[in-house]
Amino acid sequence: MIRPPQISNAPKILCITPTRLFKRALCRAFTEHDERLVFRQAPSICDAFEWTTSGDIGVLGPIIGAPAVTLACEAFIHSGTSTFALLGAIGGISSKDNPIAHGQVIFPRKLLSQEGTSTLYGAPPSSDSPPGELQIRMEEHFRSLSTSFLESHPEDNSSFESTCGMICSTDAPMMESEEVIERLRSQGVCAVDMEYTAVQHLCMLRNVPLVAGFAVSDVFEHSWSPGFSKLKQSKAVSLLCSSYAQTLIEALSEEGSKV
């Protein structure tokens, strides 16, 4: 096996996101939970991947696509990172039995791989994705934070419903025709992205815990309805990032680590 590059001062926990929106919101959420967490730019990896670090916690991104993400993750694992967290925007596939809305939060329970990286890791095309202890804790924090926000803002008519389901990752989002989406919907897929299944398979192979959650930007019902601009104003993004920050800071604290 090719030896991955060594990353100096690799964090214990690495958060990964494809978008600047989530990267900024996540760094802000960590600092709000603990003002000692000040993020600074770290040296790029292979002159290609940008990340920031506060010491024990790092944020990688924006980074898009299964090959790029798994390549970076292999380097971090080789350098001592022991936990990964993946979050970002995702395309929702709405159905009569499982309606999906803009801004809705989705947590994975099954996966369907249509990207090429997972196959090279010897993974089956589809499998269950049972939540680990950190995943369960993060989801509980999200529901608790959502409830608290709505109780303290009775005038806000936002909905922060979350759902669990099957996520499909692809290398070719521009090829997701109506026919393709209908086929995915018939298989029980509720959302599509470009990274999750590969990261999950890598973490399973390397025995590294993964926390994953997504906020819906675009929605397919009868056709695609874009909504990333709506996501920029969505309170769900900050609540999701806050639930990540709370969960991961607790995990570090329980290890007796200095944050």
Structure description:
- This protein has a single domain (13-254), classed as Nucleoside phosphorylase domain (Rossmann fold, 3-Layer(aba) Sandwich), CATH 3.40.50.
- It contains 8 helices and 11 strands.
- A 5-stranded mixed β-barrel has the order 5-9-8-6-10, surrounded by 4 helices.
- The longest helix has 20 residues, at 133-152.
- It is α/β, with parallel strands linked by helices and 259 residues long.
- 37% of the residues lie in helices and 25% in strands.
- Helix 1 (20-33) crosses helix 8 (235-254).
CATH superfamily: Nucleoside phosphorylase domain
The CATH class is Alpha Beta
Q: What structural category characterises the helix and strand content?
A: alpha/beta
Number of helices in the DSSP assignment: 8
Describe the SSE topology.
Elements: E1 13-16, H1 20-33, E2 40-41, E3 51-53, E4 57-60, H2 66-78, E5 83-93, E6 105-114, H3 117-120, E7 126-128, H4 133-152, E8 162-170, H5 178-186, E9 189-193, H6 196-206, E10 210-220, E11 224-225, H7 228-231, H8 235-254
Parallel strand pairs: 1-4, 1-5, 5-10, 6-8, 8-9
Antiparallel strand pairs: 2-3, 3-4, 5-9, 6-7, 6-10, 10-11
Structure described in brief:
The protein is an alpha/beta fold and 259 residues long.
Entry keywords:
single chain, 259 residues, alpha/beta, Rossmann fold, 5-stranded mixed barrel, 8 helices, 11 strands
